[in-house]
Amino acid sequence: MTGNDLVHVVDDDVDVRKSLGFLLATADFAVRLHESATAFLATATGDLNGCIVTDVRMPGIDGIEFLRQLRARGQAIPVIVMTGHADVALAVQAMKEGASDFIEKPFDDQVLIDAIRSALDNRNQAGATHPQSAAIHGRMAALSERERQVLDGLVAGLPNKTIAYDLGISPRTVEIHRANVMSKMGADSLSHLVRMALIVESKP
Fold first, then answer.
1. Are 185 and 196 in contact (CB under 8 A)?
2. For the chain, which end, N or C, has fewer CB atoms within 10 Å of the first or last residue's CB respectively?
């Protein structure tokens, strides 16, 4: 841990802010709480250290617009987006806007702590060419046609039921294909899977 391990929590729900602040303080992070993206941006000057944990749904500037404004200011600080279960499409959009990770609520405390540590460890690699692009292409090439269709649906932010309807198969079959995709791609979470798919999409 270094002096730069500061976590900014941005959430309009005061109870969530306090709860996350307590959790992260007990995990030895320095924490600053912000009631909104607007409040954060009003006080953010110079290069920002640490990382940001923000809700995707907030009044005024939501999580997606927050990401856009940070990038427009040239801020490369990693951002972890918290989403509701029904907000997968928003989470995928957040990844496309530069979020380093997303976590679906409710989440286990350790999942958030691990995501923050990973974001902090990888912050200096932001914008760099991903060293595993070729390996990711290789894994994707090993997917069956149906598995690739399911992957495309996941990256589009569609829930399992919608993917099942679109492909004319059962939600249970989608779950099986999804598990196979996760295994073949070596993804330990949906955000990891989406991140790999976006790396492939962005490669010239």
1. yes
2. C
